[in-house]
Amino acid sequence: MLGRRQLIARAAALAATQFLAGPLHARPAASRVRTAVDPFALGVASGEPSTDGFVLWTRIAGLGEDRLVGYEIAEDDGFRRIVRRGTALAPVARGGAVHLEAHGLGAGRRYFYRFHFGEAVSRTGTVATIAAAPDRLRMALTSCQHWEQGWFTAYRDMIANGVEAVLQVGDYIYERSFGAGPNIRSFGAPDPVTLDDYRARHALYRSDPDLSAAHAAMPFLVSWDDHEVENDYFADRAGYTGDPKAFVDRRAAAYRAYFEHMPLRPSALHPGGEVRLYRSSFWGDLAAVHVLDTRQYRTPSTCIVEGATADGPIARCARPDSDQGSMLGHVQEAWFKQATATRPARWSLVTQQTLFSRLVLPAGADSLYPQFWDGYAAARTRLLDALDAAGTRNAVILGGDVHSFWVNDVKRDFTRPEGATVATEIVTSCLASRSGPEALFGPAPDLNPHVRFRDNAHAGYVLLDIRSDRIEGAMRAVSDLADPRATCRTLRSFVIEDRRLGASL
Ligand SMILES: [Fe+2]
After folding, report:
1. Could you tell me the distance, in angstroms and rounded to a whole number, from the CA of residue 304 to the centre of ligand 1?
2. How far is it, in rounded angstroms, from Cα 105 to Cα 46?
């Protein structure tokens, strides 16, 4: 192991290299300027932790030209033991966003970071690298935060519980108002359409003190659902924008703004506007996290007859056994197969956006919601096949979207409840949105023996305490979305034991 002095020397050398090798062709102006507004009003964030680094993020809004932003990474929050210091480019073409990849740091170490711009210094953020052989990992699973419908107080509870990584699985922003209220605050702007509109919507979100503090305190592993663009869209198919060309433009703006505001690797932004969100992270051999994107590449459900739209449940799936439909698209499916087989881990966590298990509805045994995995039954089987072929020891499917908490036993054949459970499904409720009517899912547990727990009455998140012999989980419910001082309590706890799929409640 390197001594501290050597570490600092090496870090300084690396920082210098990074400075020289940086994309400086634009010759940014010197950053010694005074600005009337705080250039770091959007805060700081970290993401994509690995054993030797992470991504650090900030964004200087309103830049007229490319500028350099200084950064420091230290072992202490007083910045006396600085291990890395340098500059990173804030390009106007990326809205002044900085996505800095730090490498070469020590494994399993906590670091503090901050940015400089002119006289201004950002708030201090903190993030830890992943240990070489971790034996414990605390994660939070979260989705669905509607600005108008609730305070984001649940993030305080995550910080208080020592969460080491936040799995945000979509609906990070909402593009429009929903429902009759009552609301706690307003977007104060029309629905976003252009890049500037979406930038403003993301900036509004980051003005929330709890969300801003969460990003400064914990690394996020993000993926999106539909509301980051528009309700119920998938691939290049609009949810409600009438003109297909207008929708493609809207989606491009939304994707771009999402990338600009998230602590993603710079390589996530592909030429042509694709944002590559499917990826894997490894916490030693304790846990693999496979992040899936079920929106960007999704094909139409084979349950819906071409030309027809299905908002609600449909009574009979048009082509239930078709293997044509795909939630992930075939490229991502192939990637998943390979990703799960590459590196075994005790716990394989698969994050995706929506309800994975079969859900028989009161209308009858053949009724289903085609926008859930039920509308892609063959693709669901292929995903389970991939986990099986990889010899996955403990598969845990994590999702959100449905604004309710669920624990399900995942069956290879849901019509045979006595058959083996092949994975455990955990679904988080909304962090800050209203739940749908109870009738949305009907008496789900009665009609679906594999549904072990369902709660439609609370918002919150799921806390996962991952150890080598078990995962201890807790549905953390927010006491009152309208109360800015709300607290969380455990609504229900569960345990998933090693090699015993299905949770004990
Ligand atoms: Fe949602």
Report:
1. 22
2. 15
